[in-house]
Request: fold
Amino acid sequence: MNVLAMRRSILPVLLAVWAGGCAAAQLERPEVAGPGAATVPAWVKDTLAAIRQDWAPDRRVARFDVEVEAAAGGVVLKGETDQPWAADRLRRALEALDVAYVDSIRLLPDAAVRGERWALVNLSAANLRVTRGHGAELATQALLGTPVRVVDHQGGWTLVQVPDGYLAWVDGGGIHPVSEAELEAHRAAEKVIYLKLEGVALSEPRAGSAPVSDLVAGDILVLESEADGWYRVRYPDGRTAYVPVAEAARYDDWLAGLRATESSLVETALSMLGRPYLWGGTSPKGMDCSGFTKTVYLLNGLILPRDASQQAQAGERVDSTGDFARLRPGDLLFFGRAATDSTPERVVHVAMWIGGGRFIHSSGRVQINSMDPADPLYDEYERGRYLRASRILGSQVGVQSLAAGALYPVDGRFAPAATA
Reply:
């Protein structure tokens, strides 16, 4: 059953819930199939699916891992979610339909986080994984000094949410827990942003001194002082180091001077030519296709959603027919499989237009290719799976601004990302 048909089938249920009434109380109850056995009615399953679709359709940015199991005389709600409103809606639905239930849903974050609701990234680029374990798939990366929301702790790993909304697991060494007051102090503190693609923070204000850590473009550290061409900086865990002034900038000054333009985006993108492809990478150490476009825009003051399919929902569509004359440098191009009568569209790749028929993308490495068959850089494969293009500059759809404070949460939450 498609989503539309499903929603139509349970419309009376949801109307009863939203009205707070019991109009559907006469609907079917769990049927006892035998001693100690029961089945969950289809409408209960449909209600659960509809709530998941409405509140957490994209598991990358919201969790509603809840199931309903049959029990004698009613149902048991099991699983976990970081969407308390969705759990409440499910309870209200069952109550409106006079279904007895046992609530075993774990609301995240809970006591497992030990009051540690926030953290700051403590490495140049922390690796965030799909599941717990160093052998697990890399989902994304988060840069030094980035605030993250702590959602869960399990076995030395922490489920965190980054400012673009993405949820993933990080080991304890990647973050430093902070209180809400400490997070606000970090927001207010004078900071520096590292701008060289890669470098090193040193233990003393002189070249050749021992390193404290590596750094990548986009890393943010608290500024303690400036003297003789060096910034003295502080890490989230209290370590101090020195960074050449020529390789960084005061964060507020950098933000004030930012003007994301077609030329600045192209300049940033070209500076990363040859950087290696890394599945899940979103830093100059290595980037997948959407990690590359995300990094380019981040270094121009804008936060894009994490994945290509999410980025495809951001900005304003400017082409879907292959009329590349309509594109401007900085526009994002999306590739994949077009929708059919029986299958949805599937976006699997993203690139950035640089003009002259050419685009830049991370595919094996960051490289330039062309849509022009007469160009020696023509990429027939990518041309064949081109879907559409969107313009990010000038749009607020799915785009967040560092200058507007998007790096930090509002009312305990990061702004929602575009989903697909």
